[in-house]
User: Which sequence fits this backbone?
């Protein structure tokens, strides 16, 4: 892999991913990144998270390389497992990855079923993909509550917040914004009974708003 990237990658004429290790093992990519010639030929660091590897990569980040999670799948289609996919996307983003790629789009365990319908996993993924579009960047966000996970994104004046509640009961969550001029947020919810359903807007007062998160759900808040 190192020899190819160093000596042959420029001949391909397009951006190069490497090394796509099974559990995002950094050994092969470290070798590439620690060689100035090879590193200059590498556009993205890609890897899978089978069996581990969901962690930050300071060497790649410090060199300005985008880090992509380029393959994962889970066969379990229970709601608990499907919501866990949302948590996994959340975790990939919080450790500094720029992309999450599911292996096989059209499968019973994928985002689209064999009959063409969007699956529950697809609706969970859409809570990110539908609203966090190219050009958005992640901003710091956190929750002090157990089993509630948050990531937030901005593009210009637009803010998108994705919140996962893995608890078995509804729960209140307060948000305090730093910057931005949002007057309200539109909510979209995927749960056992909802599929990226738009629900009532929530007003922002003095950059603070409070909502009740549905049990075992993922909610996307889009600023207005």
Assistant:
């Amino acid at each position: 892999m190192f020899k190819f990237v160093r000596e042959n990658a420029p001949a391909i004429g397009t951006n190069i991913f490497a090394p796509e290790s099974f559990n995002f093992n950094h050994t092969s990519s470290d070798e590439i990144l620690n060689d100035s010639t090879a590193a200059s030929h590498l556009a993205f660091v890609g890897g899978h998270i089978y069996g581990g590897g969901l962690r930050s990569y300071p060497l790649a980040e410090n060199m300005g390389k985008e880090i992509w999670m380029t393959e994962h799948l889970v066969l379990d289609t229970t709601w608990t497992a499907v919501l866990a996919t949302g948590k996994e996307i959340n975790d990939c983003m919080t450790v500094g990855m720029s992309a999450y790629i599911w292996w096989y789009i059209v499968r019973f365990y994928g985002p689209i079923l064999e009959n063409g319908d969007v699956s529950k996993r697809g609706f969970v993924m859409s809570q990110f993909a539908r609203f966090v579009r190219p050009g958005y960047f992640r901003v710091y966000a956190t929750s002090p509550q157990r089993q509630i996970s948050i990531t937030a994104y901005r593009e210009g004046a637009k803010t998108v917040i994705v919140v996962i509640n893995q608890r078995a009961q509804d729960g209140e969550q307060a948000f305090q914004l730093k910057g931005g001029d949002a007057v309200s947020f539109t909510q979209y919810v995927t749960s056992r009974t909802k599929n990226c359903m738009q629900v009532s807007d929530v007003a922002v007062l003095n950059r603070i708003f409070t909502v009740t998160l549905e049990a075992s759900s993922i909610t996307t808040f889009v600023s207005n």
The longest strand covers residues 148-155. The radius of gyration is 19 Å. Residues 79-94 form the longest helix (16 residues). The chain has two domains: 2-129, 137-223.
